[in-house]
């Protein structure tokens, strides 16, 4: 049976998600048409223990590639770029209270926010999923010689 | 988080390689502002100028166990869209020529900095 996940240098990639590999972001499309957005395992590893994830307000309309939130660790600060265009619908309050949830569970409990997408049909084709995502991530990790993923206690892929 | 897109922040850095603990934070704040979609410029003057000389920032490391040097921070700031500018007059203080500067740094004179300060939404001075 084919595995639904792959590990590259210890970094977990879930094949079911859609990725913008360059920006280390993922989305999943929910039944109600919203999309959930998060950071990848590679991103949480590069950032180290995350101190704050400050999202723009619900109702903010963002084009693909524009910042949705500012992610801050003790050694890095940068934007979470929007994988698709849309309106911020919901912010994960658990992550607001405890940003290290992103380190512990980048693909599940550590999701950052939900969007109401406005161009999903056309933009979803620009994202990578399944084996194509794994291959693209493998190339990026090797090309940039990204370090092996270290996982905190309680990590869940 | 409030939306501060387009606000202009000017960070003035007067500290250099001889005081490593005063070098990282201004760049970190600049990167945070850039991540918040602000228009950010770091102006290096006085001692701040010396970190822009090729080969100098690589020697400054706050955490001995980390690969990150001041040069890494400068590079990350530039990649994040932070504009790096140096005071022309202070370059003479350190015998730095245009060729000595790391890539991506533009030279501006004193009049420009006054102009920039007056046209910024906020100035942070270090």
Number of strands of chain A: 12
What's the main sheet of chain B like? 5 strands, parallel
Strand order of the largest sheet of chain A: 7-10-11-5-4-3-12
Task: Give the end-to-end Cα distance of chain B, rounded to a whole number of Å.
Answer: 25 Å
Mean pLDDT over all positions of chain A? 95
Give the CATH class of chain B. Alpha Beta
* Beta strand % of chain B: 15-25%
CATH superfamily of chain A: RNA polymerase II/Efflux pump adaptor protein, barrel-sandwich hybrid domain
CATH topology of chain A: OB fold (Dihydrolipoamide Acetyltransferase, E2P)
Q: Which overall shape of chain B is indicated by the principal axes computed on the Cα atoms? A: globular
Q: Which spans of chain A have pLDDT < 50 for at least 5 consecutive residues?
A: none
CATH architecture of chain A: Beta Barrel
According to CATH, what is the topology of chain B?
Hypothetical Protein Ychn, Chain: A
Structural summary, described in words:
The complex is a heterodimer of chains A (157) and B (126). With 157 residues, chain A is an alpha+beta fold. Helix content of chain A is 22%, strand content 34%. Chain A is built from five helices and twelve strands. In chain A, the strands form three sheets. Chain A has a seven-stranded antiparallel beta sheet with strand order 7-10-11-5-4-3-12. A three-stranded antiparallel beta sheet of chain A has the order 6-8-9. A two-stranded antiparallel sheet of chain A has the order 1-2. The longest helix of chain A is centred in the last third of the chain and has 14 residues, at 130-143. Chain A is globular and about 35 Å long. The two termini of chain A are 19 Å apart. With 126 residues, chain B is an alpha/beta fold. In chain B, strand 2 (39-44), helix 2 and strand 3 (83-87) form a beta-alpha-beta unit. Classes of the chains: A alpha+beta (157), B alpha/beta (126). At the A-B interface, strand 8 and strand 9 of A face helix 1 of B.
């Amino acid at each position: 049976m084919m595995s639904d996940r792959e590990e590259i240098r210890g970094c977990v990639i879930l094949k079911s998600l859609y990725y913008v590999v360059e920006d280390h972001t993922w989305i999943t499309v929910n039944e109600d048409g919203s999309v959930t957005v998060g950071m990848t395992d590679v991103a949480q590893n590069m950032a180290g223990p995350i101190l704050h994830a400050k999202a723009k307000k619900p109702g903010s309309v963002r084009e693909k590639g524009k910042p949705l939130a500012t992610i801050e660790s003790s050694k890095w600060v940068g934007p979470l770029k929007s994988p698709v265009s849309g309106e911020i619908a919901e912010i994960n309050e658990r992550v607001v209270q405890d940003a290290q949830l992103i380190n512990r569970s980048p693909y599940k409990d550590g999701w950052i926010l939900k969007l109401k997408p406005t161009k999903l049909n056309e933009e979803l084709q620009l994202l990578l999923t399944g084996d194509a995502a794994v291959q693209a991530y493998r190339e990026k990790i090797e090309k940039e010689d990204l370090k092996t993923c270290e996982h905190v206690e309680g990590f869940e892929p | 988080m409030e939306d501060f897109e387009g606000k202009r922040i000017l960070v003035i850095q007067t500290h250099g390689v001889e005081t490593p603990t005063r070098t990282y934070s201004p760049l970190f704040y600049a990167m945070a502002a850039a991540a918040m979609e602000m228009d950010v410029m770091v102006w290096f003057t006085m001692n701040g100028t010396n970190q822009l000389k090729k080969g100098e920032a690589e020697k400054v490391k706050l955490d001995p166990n980390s690969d990150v040097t001041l040069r890494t921070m400068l590079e990350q700031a530039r990649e994040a869209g932070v504009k790096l500018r140096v005071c022309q007059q202070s370059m003479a203080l350190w015998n730095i020529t245009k060729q000595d500067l790391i890539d991506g740094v533009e030279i501006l004179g004193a009049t420009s900095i006054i102009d920039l300060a007056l046209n910024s939404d906020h100035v942070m001075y270090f």
